[in-house]
Specification:
158 residues, alpha+beta, four-stranded antiparallel β-sheet, 31% helix, globular
Length: 158
């Protein structure tokens, strides 16, 4: 599937909210808001993200102009981290890989870091295809699962 990245607009946020409220997406992402269905929290959180000049945020757009997700880089210079969320109906079509590759072209800082819940093989594979390597493991509480989970830590050096 061909996708492009563009600046995020107000009109994208309801789509993001729907995607990020999907129970299967929440389970796979694991590290989510305490209550992903809290629209007030979502609105405040996204206002903060969009106002932060250190955040590189892009909307992922499909070949027919549909919003398929978002991707971003955030954090202080020594801890820049990537994140992305793709709507479940687009999983398994290469969208996340293309979107992340495009995002990495926009963000020159290295190293970059990423985290994924250890059983999210799809996300780990996307990160590896984009040059990230596994550099560690951790455990953390995942709101999306209501329990501690194993995490895979990845780094992009070059």
């Amino acid at each position: 599937m061909d996708v492009t990245l563009r600046e995020t607009s107000d009109a994208d946020l309801p789509v993001f909210f729907t995607q990020m409220s999907d129970p299967e997406g929440i389970r796979m992402a694991a590290f989510t808001a305490k209550d992903p269905t809290d629209s007030d929290y979502f609105t405040a959180h996204w206002a903060q993200i969009r106002q932060d000049p250190a955040v590189v945020l892009r909307t992922v757009v499909g070949e027919n102009g549909e919003v398929v997700g978002h991707a971003s880089v955030y954090g202080p210079p020594e801890e820049r981290e990537v994140t992305y969320w793709i709507g479940r109906q687009y999983w398994g079509r290469g969208v996340a890989t293309v979107a992340l590759r495009e995002l990495l072209r926009l963000e020159a800082a290295r190293p970059l870091y990423a985290r994924a819940v250890a059983d999210n093989a799809g996300s780990i594979r996307v990160l590896e295809k984009c040059g990230f390597v596994v550099t560690g493991h951790d455990r953390g509480f995942a709101n999306g699962r209501g329990e501690e989970v194993d995490e895979v830590l990845l780094t992009l050096l070059g």
